[in-house]
UniProtKB/TrEMBL annotation:
It holds the Pfam family Glyoxalase. This is VOC family protein. InterPro entries: Glyas_Bleomycin-R_OHBP_Dase, Glyas_Fos-R_dOase_dom, GlyoxalaseI/FosfomycinResist, VOC_core. It comes from the Bacteria. Transmembrane segments: none annotated. Residues 5-126 form the VOC domain.
């Protein structure tokens, strides 16, 4: 029918610089050109042409739970857990229980955590070296 391809995800944040620092330092996203040229928006590459846009605004009305999240995957899961510890980021499992991770039925480990505005992020251990 249609050949839709994921392009970008936009979130509203209270403090643009604080959120930008989080996405750069904690997740390693590179800031890219903001083609809107609007000062209240910053763009980040998520790899393979996918982007995250963060826009300064009132995020008080945004309510999320662990069931609504962006999911990423990587090979060095244990190294990433140590990385989260260095930034004092609370780890959760898929039910939102703190100081815990999830191991799926297929053996893949997952960790959930929140950005400075409370948006949930899931990071999965890659299943194979090709992932």
């Amino acid at each position: 029918m249609f050949d839709l391809i994921f392009d970008h995800y936009t979130i509203r944040v209270k403090d643009l610089d604080r959120s930008a620092e989080f996405y750069q330092n904690v997740l390693g996203f590179s800031e890219i050109e903001n083609r809107t040229q609007k000062a209240h928006i910053r763009w980040f590459s998520m790899g393979e042409g996918r982007e995250l846009h963060i826009a300064k605004g009132n995020s008080d009305i945004i309510k999320t739970n662990v069931g609504v999240h962006i999911a990423l995957r990587l090979k060095d899961f244990d190294g990433f857990l140590s990385h989260l510890n260095r930034y004092n980021i609370n780890r959760h499992n898929s039910k939102g229980i703190q100081d815990s991770i999830t191991t799926r039925a297929d053996g893949i480990r997952q960790v959930y955590f929140q950005d400075p505005d409370g948006y949930w992020i899931e990071v999965n251990e890659a299943a194979t070296l090709e992932d």
